[in-house]
Amino acid sequence: MGRRTMKVVLLAGGLGSRLAEETVRIPKPMVEVAGRPIMLHVMDIYDHWGQTDFIIACGYKAMSIKSFFNELHLMNNDFTIGIGNGEMDLRPTSNIDWRVSVVDTGLHTMTGGRLKRLRDWLDDEPFMVTYSDGVGNIDIEALMDFHKSHGKLATVTAVQPPARFGNLEMEDDKVVEFTEKVRKYETWINGGFFVFEPGVLDYLSGDEEPLEMAPLTNIARDGELMAYKHKGFWHPMDTIRDRDHLERLATSGSPPWMQFERERRNADARTAQGPITTAKLAGV
């Protein structure tokens, strides 16, 4: 039996204000890491698991994204062109074989509204959704298996945020332990990499609504949101500092978001706590 495939929606329409140094001229998903837009690194993760049917929900500087994908096949192949008649002979140099739909979902539309506008593109079938600026070595097959196993409407990938600050353990005013950038307490946040049933779209109301607010809160309230716990690498690209960090990781060898180890398939490795019944997962 072949691999199951789903459409993969990439949310790529935000302003990226904390990356203004870059996003004043290009949309955030087009900010480069190791010479390639961060969005392509996200797509590489899905491609590794055989998921190659993408829908890009763009907004801010949508024409930049449309132009990029319109020309991507030229950038990924050598070619001979007849200058007189424009005939082109492509000579493949890449094994990338993606189907990419680029949809302008509105300049000021929020994430929930962008997804709602894609209803006609999703064929009333289960689909995946993620942000176009967060990378992780997510086991997409295990994620899909987990989603199928629980029978609920929605799965969010829960991740542990990168440790950014040192830790001080104190007794009164005395520091008894100083640890640099070590996470001592288990915290889970919304890492994207969602799997949704078509019924999720019925929770979306309009352009002004972020997916992460009322829709996911209400899905959780109804007992229909489950968390797939990913304990491997995950990192967002929210700031210039994040971009520079990902750049260093990508240029020092195989990037950690493309280093996959099959996750354990027992209840402890995924999640055994049941549905998310309140919005306790940070970012949801």
List the helices and strands and how they pair.
Layout: E1 7-12, H1 20-23, E2 32-33, E3 36-37, H2 38-48, E4 53-58, H3 62-75, E5 77-81, E6 88-92, E7 99-104, H4 111-117, E8 127-131, E9 134-136, H5 140-150, E10 154-159, E11 167-171, E12 174-179, E13 189-190, E14 194-196, H6 214-221, E15 225-230, E16 234-236, H7 240-251
Parallel strand pairs: 1-4, 1-8, 4-7, 10-15
Antiparallel strand pairs: 2-3, 5-6, 8-14, 9-16, 10-13, 10-14, 11-12
Strand content: 25-35%
Instruction: State the helicity in percent bands.
Output: 10-25%
Overall average pLDDT: 86
Radius of gyration of CA atoms, rounded to a whole number: 20 Å
What structural class do helix, strand and pairing data support? alpha/beta
Question: Low-confidence parts, pLDDT < 50 over ≥5 residues?
Answer: 263-273
The profile of the biggest β sheet is:
8 strands, mixed
Count of extended strands? 16
Shape: globular
C-alpha end-to-end distance = 35 Å
